[in-house]
Amino acid sequence: MQFLSNLIGGVSLGSVYALIALGYTMVYGIARMLNFAHGDVIMVGAYVVFFAFCSGGMNPLLAILIAMAVCTLLGVTIERIAYRPLREAPSLAVLITAIGVSYLLQNGALLLWSANPRAFTSVVSIPPISLFGGRLTIPGNTLVNVVVCLVIMVGLWLFVNRTTPGHAMQAVSEDRGAAQLMGINVNATISLTFAIGSALAAVAGALLCSSYPMLQPTTGAMPGIKAFTAAVFGGIGSIPGALLGGILLGVIENLSKAYISTQISDAIVFLVLIVILLIKPTGLLGKKRVVKV
Amino acid sequence: MALLEVSNLGIAFGGLQAVDKLDLRIEQGQLYGLIGPNGAGKTTVFNMLTGVYKPTEGNIVLDGRDITGLPPARISQAGIARTFQNIRLFDKMSVLDNVKVGLHNRYKYNMLTGILRLPAYREKEHEMNREARKLLKIFELDKEEKLTASQLPYGKQRKLEIARALATNPKLLLLDEPAAGMNPNETAELMNTIKFVRDTFHISVLLIEHDMSFVMGICEYITVLNYGRELARGTGKEIRNNPNVIAAYLGGDD
Lengths: 293, 254
Hints:
The complex is a heterodimer of chains A (293) and B (254). Chain A is mainly alpha-helical. Chain A contains eleven helices and four strands. The longest helix of chain A is centred in the first third of the chain and has 30 residues, at 2-31. Chain A starts with a helix and ends in a 14-residue tail after the last helix. Classes of the chains: A mainly alpha (293), B alpha/beta (254).
């Protein structure tokens, strides 16, 4: 029963990683860049929820909606100002810029909101569920994390595969040049991708801080890197890959914490990543890009 | 007035003048051929017409509107569509979805409608599917709509590229070596298809091709390019008997 409880905890944590990983994987799939500032957008989203809900006393759903709007605006602005001028630049230049934006956001938050950690009140007020005569308790947070993650995944999958803007995203991802020649506005499509990824980051921020109730300017950094790992783990560029990678990563982390050691759990997570990439370099669900000559 | 009027078009890459002082005049409904030896600058002309390259000189006027230097997506919306020398379909998407990408500027619904899957979304998707299937039927691809583009045999991929280009509702269709890699039967069939497309959709076609019997058999007017400059222009017969053209293709005496 203890094992089951740890497993469920891992799935819950993994759901949050999966939501964050979506932001990495979509942006990579469509714009071919790694947006390392994504983790810090989560932090900004969490602060907005904190001020609106935890200290402002607003309705939690409304607070999350506001955070989504703020993060969408932030994500689109970052893309417009920092990444779009570098569209034709070597990928290394874009990568370094993304790291720069990440530091800018962290230090901006430090300046605005100070380094003092804030105690985050959970946005979830659902009571825990008791199973097997009280031997297994599933906290409300866990339920919400998993359900929200699944709903968003399914919605996003339908959006990408069944709608016109979704098809445009796929087309840009496969062949940007040909997509343009079919009349697709590539910049608008990439902006849309950043908007969706950032809105999801706000949701992830609220859920993350509801499970780990401490908020400070570096809060987004570590989950950001882990979610990036999850995206690579599942196969970067793949939406189901982000889900699978995120959940597996969460489970491995939680089980290592429970049965091996809390201190080296992160090391174990990254070790597993290295092993997976040695065996399958494109990640679990990633496809090989065959370059025709 | 001609559908496409290109005057004094030129582009230089560094010191290399790839295309120089090119004039083209394509009439409504005309089948026009652009030929020339390898490296003559034919595909470069296509890339300028579609906005992939910005010309360093000259003007491109489509249907009375100056489109010189517009970005590719805008030119596509203005009415020029193209296919590619080496096929560039969206390989992982289905045959139907490839055509729907071409349709996407004609059927707009807003994002929220798409996310929430409101009735307006279903209606538009329905229309798009119908329109896309109509195009697939013309090219006898309707049985394969669920396959991914990469699963189609080569000849059908070429057809799908034309169908996708037509989905953007062009006034002018550019075909870059449409008969490349086809056997004589397929080539003959392609000639009929192109004529059929011209007549059904009331569009002009500009094509690049190396297969001379194909070009002579289908093109009403031809421009010959050599080293980025116009070497000759005229009807098929005029081109065939032009001594300059014969020299450029077979090597001159001098």
